[in-house]
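Batch job 17 of 40 flagged for manual review because the log was empty.
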Amino acid sequence: MRTVRRAFATMVMSFAARAEAQHTHGEAQLDIGIDGTSGAMELRIPGDDLYGFEHQPRTAVERAKRDSAVAKLGSRASSLVRFDAAFGCAVTPGPVRFSAGKHVEVSARYTFSCRRAPIGRDIRFGVTSVFPSVHILRVQLVTETAQRNTTITDDKGVLRP
């Protein structure tokens, strides 16, 4: 368990550093760590793709757009990452953070717990259906026994742990 957490933390930090340098509109990054029947995820999306602008909100209208998108990150969490129903997974939203600077990136963290370990069946994704400006999702997955990555385009494609 400690090994997966350490690998996941390292992966998130390295991807966060790379994301700062590679900020690309239309793309999001998702890191998933699975440890037995539970795990954690972090989704990073440019502010522009999430709510239509990259700067800090300057008006009440911009704050409302940002707050609505952040609420969607929580309320639609199980639509963003879809585990096979046979595993009985529940996704719980965690903190949402905003990077500083000219090109704001939003980072949303989640935890999940399942009745059965979510290994051996496809994980599907619905980021584009929730946030239509995101067309490419780069996914990195770490489990107790493997590390995988893939690129999902317009919600087409799967990742099997």
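Reviewer: the log was empty due to a logging misconfiguration, but the result itself is present. The longest strand covers residues 27-35. Unflagging and moving on to job 18.
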